[in-house]
Every structure is written in C-alpha cells, then in structure tokens.
Design a protein that fits this description.
Main location: cytoplasm
Distance between the termini: 23 Å
Low-confidence stretches: none
Number of domains: 2
Strand content: 5-15%
Oligomer: single chain
Structural class: alpha/beta
Family: Belongs to the ferrochelatase family.
Mean pLDDT: 97
Pathway: Porphyrin-containing compound metabolism; protoheme biosynthesis; protoheme from protoporphyrin-IX: step 1/1
Number of strands: 8
Protein name: Ferrochelatase
Helix content: 40-55%
Bound molecules: ligand L6N33NVT, fe (ii) ion
Strand order of the largest sheet: 2-1-3-4
Organism: Maritimibacter dapengensis
C-alpha cells in the first residue's frame, strides 16, 4: 500500500488483514532415526509436556530414550506413512482440514482474512507462519490450537510457542487465542454423526463404545489441568446426544509414557478386561481428543489396542475415525472461528 505522503524510501506497508492460524501437535519430517530423534527431542524437552527439572530429565532423555525410541516410533510411523506425499497422516489431514476452512472463511470474509496452519513441534514451525502472516500484513491474528480439550500439554504449549513467535515481531499484531470446544453442541453433533454413520441406532451398536482419549500423568490433573474433566464431559454429552444407554459408552485413556501413574482406566487394559472378565465380544473405539487421525489412533488403537482385545477373547473391533475433514467438523470449527473473530471481521 502506498500513500501520497510517504517518502520514496519508506518501507512497504501491506493492506491490513486478519490471520487465522491453526496449530496442531506436529509430526516428524520422516521416519528415519535422525528425523524421529529431532522430533522426539523437541517434543519431550518441552517442560509443559514433561515437567521434571532439566538436570534430572535431560540425561535420561538424551541417553536411553533418544537412543531407543526413535527406532521403535520410526518403525510405527513407517506402517502408517503416507508414502505418496512423503509425510505422516497428521500432516496430510491437517492440510486438508485447513484448506476447507480457508475456502469457507474466504467465502465468508473475503481476501481480508488469511488462513494457514503451523505445528507446535517440527514443521511448518509456529515462528515461520507468524512471520509470514505479519509480513503479509496481518495486524490481527486469531491463534487456534486444534484440540477440543484444553491441556497445558497441548493447547497451553501451542499458545506459548505463538507468544514466543510474537516476541520476535517489530510490528506485533493484536492477538486472540481460541478456546477449547469439547462441549459445544456442534462438535458433539459431529462426533455423534461419525458414530451414526457406522451404527445408525443403538440396536445396531456393539456391546461397548469406548471413547479413548490421549492420556497424561494423573499428577497434572491434581495440579489443575482441566483435561480429564473435559474428556469426561465430552463422553457424557455424546451419550446424551446419541440417546444410548450410559452403560454402553465408556471413557478410557491411552498412550501411557514413562513410569508415573497416568489417567485411568488405560484403554489397552480396559478392552482386555472387558473381553476377559465381562465376556464382551463386540466393541467400537473412537478418539474424541484428536482432531485428526495420527500415530496414536492409526497405529496404537488399530494395532496394539485391537490386538489386546482380540487376544483376550474379543471378536469384533471397529475403529471409528477422527472427525478429520468431515463437513460437520469443518462446520463446528468454522463456528468457533467466527465467534472468536467477533468485532474484528463481521
Ligand atoms: C510424554 C508425555 C505426553 C503427553 C503428556 C502427551 C499429551 C497429549 N498428546 C496429545 C496428542 C498427540 N500426541 C501424539 C504423539 C505423541 N505423544 C507423546 C507423548 C505425550 N503426549 C509422544 C512421545 C508422541 C510421539 C509418538 C511416539 O513416539 O509414540 C500425537 C500424534 C503425532 C503424529 O505425528 O501422529 C498427537 C496428536 C494430546 C491430545 C495430549 C493431551 C493430554
Ligand atoms: Fe501425545
Ligand atoms: Fe475430572
């Protein structure tokens, strides 16, 4: 943008825009040892994720964990890798979601809105996308962590990284962060529709529907992280929306890491217990804490957790995919965005 009173050598001032920057967890650039090591090192060095003092944790992380885990996790990533695109499913799905959100938001608000995504760990980095938005003229940014539930280990650290990126800006934009949306009717409705696509009514339903949420150390709940309570509420609201009997739908937590007690019951133990002790033969599992399918759903749920159920005597295991780029999901996310742009873009 140029105006008459500007001297010839005045820096270019772009037309002001409003940015909507979605943020997901991040994923390795590849599944080889060094890509995995780089990703896990960044992730597991984050104090919001693992809060032990560095003098105690770093020797363990840099020693045994980053020697062994990159091989193990790399082998798991290889089984789910999107070889055509050369990237992990989390990356492909996040890009597809954000392309749809961009189309809807641009149709609604025109070229004054700029929509993009970044990752908390790895690429595209939060810093690079904040730099790009500011350079493109965004004088306002709505930052949107793509997690339905708030946890300091996910949304909290995503926001931290956003604020770190702002520290580097000469011309800081005005900013907002989007709130969690675990109890919104449109998000619950999107979850319910994903169940009803597979089981149109309770008559068709399996003996149990397991809502398996990513876990975290129990200690974090005691220290005030609201994630556990928000997960429980999502299951309750989903049960009410589906109209199924409450005893058919359960909450469990997966992906235990390290020696501490994590939120319970553990999914892998509960599905085995159901088969062994209650004689349950048919279950379905869904993962409402994940906005996109990823290693934890495609490999852990459909691999390890499914095997635990079948080895314990279970016969039918169905995985209900995450909301990904479902239309109902895009509608729910668009509503959260438009509500949080209120007064900026109408
Ligand atoms: C070690 C502590 C971890 C905590 C606490 C944690 C919380 C947490 N994570 C998600 C969402 C995702 N996690 C993913 C992968 C993943 N998570 C951890 C550890 C913790 N997560 C690790 C070590 C990994 C890497 C995979 C592995 O090596 O096994 C992913 C998937 C990434 C992908 O590329 O597909 C997501 C998404 C939530 C919602 C959450 C909240 C409590
Ligand atoms: Fe995780
Ligand atoms: Fe709780």
């Amino acid at each position: 943008m140029k105006t008459d009173h500007m001297p010839e050598d005045h820096p270019q001032v772009p037309m002001p825009k409003t940015g909507v920057l979605f943020s997901n967890l991040g994923t390795p650039d590849n599944y080889d040892y060094w890509s995995m090591r780089r990703y896990l090192n960044e992730f597991l060095s984050d104090k919001r994720v693992i809060d032990y003092p560095a003098w105690k944790w770093q020797p363990i992380l840099q020693g045994p964990i980053l020697t062994i885990r990159p091989f193990r996790s790399g082998a798991n990533y290889k089984t789910i890798w999107n070889h055509d695109k050369g990237e992990s499913p989390l990356m492909t799905i996040t890009r597809n979601q954000v392309a749809k959100l961009d189309a809807v938001l641009t149709e609604r608000f025109g070229e004054q809105v700029m929509v993009d995504f970044c990752m908390r760990y790895g690429n595209p980095s939060t810093r690079s996308k904040v730099d790009a938005m500011v350079a493109a003229g965004c004088t306002r940014i709505l930052f949107f962590p793509l997690y339905p539930h708030y946890s300091a280990t996910t949304s909290g650290t995503a926001n931290d990284q956003f604020f770190r990126a702002l520290m580097a800006q000469t011309r800081q934009p005005a900013v907002r962060t989007a709130p969690e949306y675990f109890d919104r009717a449109d998000y619950i409705d999107a979850l319910a529709k994903s169940v009803e696509r597979v089981y149109p009514s309770e008559v068709d339903a399996p003996e149990r529907l397991i809502c398996s949420y990513h876990g975290m150390p129990e200690r974090y709940l005691m220290e005030g992280d609201p994630y556990h309570c928000q997960c429980q509420k999502t299951t309750r609201l989903l049960t009410e929306r589906l109209g199924w009997s409450a005893s058919r739908i359960q909450t469990t937590f997966q992906s235990v890491f390290g020696p501490e007690e994590w939120l319970k019951p553990y999914t892998v133990e509960e599905v085995a217990r159901l088969a062994k002790e209650e004689g349950v033969k048919r279950i379905a599992v869904m993962a409402p804490a994940f906005s996109a399918d990823c290693i934890e759903t495609l490999e852990e749920i459909q691999g390890e957790i499914c095997e635990a159920f079948e080895e314990a005597g279970g016969e039918s295991f169905t995985y209900i995919p995450c909301l990904n780029d479902d239309d109902a999901h895009i509608t729910a996310l668009t509503s959260v965005v438009t509500e949080n742009l209120n007064g900026w873009l109408d």
